[in-house]
Amino acid sequence: MDATTIINNLKSEEYFINMGPQHPATHGVLRLLLTIDGEIIKKVEPDLGYIHRSIEKICEHDSYQQIVHLTDRMDYLSAHINNEAVCLTVENALQLEVPDRVKVIRTIIAELTRIASHTLWWGVMGMDVGALTTYFYGFRDRELINDIFEETCGARLTMNYNVPGGLMFDIHPNFVKRVKEFIAHFKTKLPEYDTLLTGNIIFQKRMKGIGVLTKEDAIAFGASGPVGRGSGYSCDVRKHHIYSAYDKVTFNEVLKTEGDTFARYQVRIQEMWESMSIIEQLIDNIPEGSYKATTDAVIKLPAGEYYQKVETARGELGVFIISTGTKNPYRLKFRSPGFSNLSLLNHIAVGGKIGDLVATMATLDLVIPDIDR
Amino acid sequence: MYIAMNITKNIHEWLLAILPETAASIVEMTLIALVYLAFFAIAGLFLVLLERKVAAWFQLRLGPNRVGFHGLMQTIADALKLVSKELTVTIKADKFLYNLAPYFVIVTALMALSLFPFSKELQAFDINIGIFFLIAISSIGVIGILLAGWSSNNKFAMIGAMRSGVQTISYELSVGLSLMTMVLMTGSLQLSEIVEVQKHGWLIVQGHIPAIIAFMIYMIAGTAETNRAPFDLVEAESELGAGFHTEYSGMKFAYFFLAEFINMFIISAIATTVFFGGYLSPFGITESIPLLGVFWFLAKTLVLIFLMMWFRWTFPRLRIDQLLVLEWKYLLPLNLMNLVLMALIVLLKLTIKF
C-alpha cells in the first residue's frame, strides 16, 4: 500500500458536539449541532427557538402604533431601522405624505444606527478571532452614538423614536452639533480599526479564503446586506428600492467579489465610511417643518396586502401586512435578514476548522432575537 | 546544594550544630521549598494583577482599582474567593486523573523555578545540565493539560487538550533548538556558567545576528509553550468555552491559572538568563553589590513578561493548521539554519566581546 491509500484508510470517528445555546461565539442563544471529524466541520445544523417570543402573533392583537414598539426587540442593534420599516409600511398603505424633515431625520438616525451596529460587530468580530482589545475600541465609539440617541429620544438601545406618520417628538437642539462632533471624532478613530486589526497578518490569514460564498449561492439562499454584497450581489435596498431621504444623497454601494469572510469584513468597514458621508450630506440640510404628519388616533389600514423593505445593518428587512380593514393586522410577517443569512452557515462552513466556523459566523453578524422573533 | 549567602550560611551552621547532618539537610530543603512556594504564590498573584492592569491600559480602561491601593489587593481577594469555592466534579469524570492533573501542571512549574540564578549566590539548585533540565521539566506540564482535558469527559475540554498536545510537542523543538544555538557560545548547559560567560557582553550582543534570530524564535515558541495568545488555541474562549479546564472549579482551576502565569515567568526568566545576562547589570554598573542582581534579574524578566502581555492584547489567534505550518515550515528550518550559522560564527571567532 502506498502512502495515500494508508492515509485514506485512516478513518477517525466523527463525533457530535453541541455548540450553544450558551456559548461565547454564538452571541446569544443560538444552538449549533456540529458534526466534527477531529477539527474539521462535517455538518452544521442551527437549532432555533430559544428566544422565540411570537412577536408576529402578538402583532395581530396590537394596533399599528403598538407594533412599532415590538420591532425594537427583534434586531435590537438596528432598533430604529426596524421601527422605520413598520412605519413606512403603514404610511404607504395609508398613502400618507410624511414631511421632508421626518425623512431626513429618520435617515440620519438610521445611518447612525448602522455605524453603531457595525462598530459593535467589529468589536465582537475581533473577539471571536481572539483579539480582545477590539471590543473596547468598538464600544468606545458606539457609546457616543448611544449618548446622542439618549439625548434625542431618551433611550439608548430600544429607541421607539418613530411613530406611523413621523417621529414621536422633534430632535434635541444639540442634535446637529453632537452628530457633527461625532463624525469628526469617528473620522480619526475608524483608521485605528484598520491599524489594529485589518492590517494584521494573522488576522488576514485567518479571514482570507474561508467561508466562501459565490454570487449564485448568495442569491439562491436569499442573502442580503453586507453578506450578499461581499459576494458581489448588488442588494442594497437603499439603492434599489429608495425610501426615506436616500434619494437626496449620493453614496456608493460597497461591493466585493471575493465572497470570503475578509470581503464581508471589508464591506462593513467601508459601509461605515459611506454612512458617515450620508450623514454629512444631510446634517446641514434638515428641512424646517413639522416632525409628524397628522394621523387618526386609531389607524385602520384599508383591506389589502402591503409590503415594504428597508436596509438594516444586517440586510434586507421586509414587513408584510395583510389587513382586513380593522385596527389590527390580520397577519403580519417579518422577513428578517438574519434568518436567511444563518441558513447559509452549513453551506459555507463545512470543510473548515472550528476556528473558521467561528470567524464565518462572526462575519454573518447574527443577532439571535432577529432570527427567532 | 549551593548555598553561600550569609543568612543561609548562618542557618545552615546553626542547624548542623543542633541536628545530625541528614536531618539538618532535610530541614534545610523544606525551608527552601517553603521560600520558593511563597515566591511562587506572590509572583503568581502579582503577575495576574499586572496582566489585568496591562490589559486595561491597552483597552482604554482603568483595570481593577477598588480593592486596596489602586487595586493591589484585587488578586488576593480573587484567590480567597477561589479557595472558598466548591470543588465540583462531573459525574462521568475519571476522578483519579481529574484530581491529579492540576498537580502535574503546578509542580512542574515550581520545579523549573528552582533552577534560576536570581543573583550570583541565590540559586537553589545549580546542576550541570540546567538548560536541558528546564526543557525536560517544562514538557511534563503538558501531561497535566492532556489529563485534565481527557479525564473531565467533556468534548470541548478534549479538543483543547488535543490541541495542547499538538502545540506543545511542536513548539518544544523550537524552544530547545533556539536555546541550543546559544549553548554553542557558552559551551555549558549550567545556568550559573551561562551567566558568567556574559560578563563580556550579553549573549544577544556577543552572538549578534544569529542570537537575535534565536531570541525572536525563542519568544514566539515560548509564547506558544505557555499557551498564551496569539497561540491560546488550547483555551480559545470563543471556540471552546474555556478549553481543557472547562470542568475545573475553585482551587483546582486556580492551579491551572497560576501555572500559566508562572510558566510565563519561567519562559521570560530563561530568556533573561540566556540572552540578556541574567542577574548581571548592564555595563557592569552595580557589580560591586551582588544582591542588586536580584533587581536586575527581575527587571529584565518583567520587561519580557510585558512583551508577552503586549502580544496577547494586540494579536488575534492563529488557527490550528496555521500554528503547525508556522512551526514546521518556517521556524524549524530557520532554526536549523541559524544553528549552523551560529556554529560558523563561533568557529571563526566572529563573536563580539567587550
Automatic annotation (TrEMBL), chain A:
The keyword Cell membrane applies. It comes from the Bacteria. Residues 128-373 form the NADH-quinone oxidoreductase subunit D domain. One of its GO terms (molecular function) is oxidoreductase activity. Pfam families: Complex1_49kDa (PF00346). Its main location: membrane. Its EC number is 7.1.1.-. It is found in: Cell membrane. It catalyses: a quinone + NADH + 5 H(+)(in) = a quinol + NAD(+) + 4 H(+)(out). It is a peripheral membrane protein. Keywords: Cell membrane, Membrane, NAD, Oxidoreductase, Quinone, Translocase, Transport. NDH-1 is composed of 14 different subunits. Subunits NuoB, C, D, E, F, and G constitute the peripheral sector of the complex. NDH-1 shuttles electrons from NADH, via FMN and iron-sulfur (Fe-S) centers, to quinones in the respiratory chain. The immediate electron acceptor for the enzyme in this species is believed to be a menaquinone. Couples the redox reaction to proton translocation (for every two electrons transferred, four hydrogen ions are translocated across the cytoplasmic membrane), and thus conserves the redox energy in a proton gradient. Belongs to the complex I 49 kDa subunit family. This is NADH-quinone oxidoreductase subunit D.
TrEMBL record, chain B:
It holds the Pfam family NADHdh. Its main location: membrane. It is found in: Cell membrane; Membrane. InterPro entries: NADH_UbQ_OxRdtase_su1/FPO, NADH_UbQ_OxRdtase_su1_CS. Its EC number is 7.1.1.-. Keywords: Cell membrane, Membrane, NAD, Oxidoreductase, Quinone, Translocase, Transmembrane, Transmembrane helix, Ubiquinone. It is a multi-pass membrane protein. It catalyses: a quinone + NADH + 5 H(+)(in) = a quinol + NAD(+) + 4 H(+)(out). The chain crosses the membrane at residues 29-50, 96-117, 129-150, 171-189, 201-221, 253-277, 289-311, 332-352. One of its GO terms (molecular function) is oxidoreductase activity. Belongs to the complex I subunit 1 family. NDH-1 is composed of 14 different subunits. Subunits NuoA, H, J, K, L, M, N constitute the membrane sector of the complex. NDH-1 shuttles electrons from NADH, via FMN and iron-sulfur (Fe-S) centers, to quinones in the respiratory chain. The immediate electron acceptor for the enzyme in this species is believed to be ubiquinone. Couples the redox reaction to proton translocation (for every two electrons transferred, four hydrogen ions are translocated across the cytoplasmic membrane), and thus conserves the redox energy in a proton gradient. This subunit may bind ubiquinone. This is NADH-quinone oxidoreductase subunit H. It comes from Flavobacterium taihuense. The lineage of its organism: Bacteria, Pseudomonadati, Bacteroidota, Flavobacteriia, Flavobacteriales.
